[in-house]
Amino acid sequence: MVWLLFGTGHAQPFAPGAGTGQFAPLNNLGLPNSPLLTIHFDRLFSESAYGKRIAREMEGRSAVLMAENRRIESELRAEELDLAERRATMEADAFRALATAFDQKVQETRRTQEAKFLEITTARDDARRAFRETSIPILEQIMSETGAAVILEQSTVLLSAEAIDVTDLAISRVDAILGEGNDSDGQEADLP
User: Measuring CA to CA, which of 59, 97, 131, 155 is 20 to 30 A from 124?
Assistant: First the structure.
């Protein structure tokens, strides 16, 4: 810390970089003193307890669907082999009817499984949107504490001082306030 003497005869602390375009911590609390802040929203989501819970849930649902797909694929393969073996002993029209029914079953199964995959993807997107909405008051509080006028998504910023990135602070605040994002009944946590 450098001390400067002003006309009053009192020494005043001088933070290097203050007033020179660099950013000094606000009140030595580790908060940036800048009208602009940046955040890595993907990191905020993926590294927060809330985001990690969503990732675990979606991975679990995806694993169940993949296991179901493997089981169905195995069953359809066995049915196809059985149908191929029966072909030699069946009349052409009867075989054609069974083959058409089998093809329709395969197509319907594919549509059903794709719909289940889409449901998981939609749930993941919905959870991410809910997280964004739920985290806004926390980010607004950080803005208020730092005196910032805006928080920009880091991926849209070409160049910035690392000191204005509040991602780590936001993660710790989100974890402290939201936790995993649900209470014991599975409902969203209430904001204080």
Answer: 155
Q: What is the pLDDT of residues 18-27, one digit of tens each?
A: 433 444 444 4
For residue 114, count other CB atoms closer than 10 A to its CB. 10
Which of 38, 22, 40 lies closest to 150, judged by CA?
38
Question: What residues contact 182, with CB distance under 8 A and at least 6 apart?
Answer: 53, 188, 189
**Taking the model in full, what pTM does it have?**
0.69
In DSSP terms, 32 is beta-bridged to: 25
Residue 19 tokens, joined:
């007033």
Cα 42 from Cα 154, distance rounded (Å): 10
**Cα(168)–Cα(90) distance, integer angstroms:** 69
Distance, CA of 39 to CA of 72 (rounded, Å): 44
Return the structure tokens found at 71.
């089981």
Tokens, residue 5: 């003497």
Amino acid at 144: S
Classify 13 as helix, strand or coil: strand
Q: Is the dihedral of CA 145, 25, 173, 131 positive or negative?
A: positive
C-beta atoms surrounding 161 within 10 Å? 14
Task: Give the model's pLDDT for residue 183.
Answer: 53
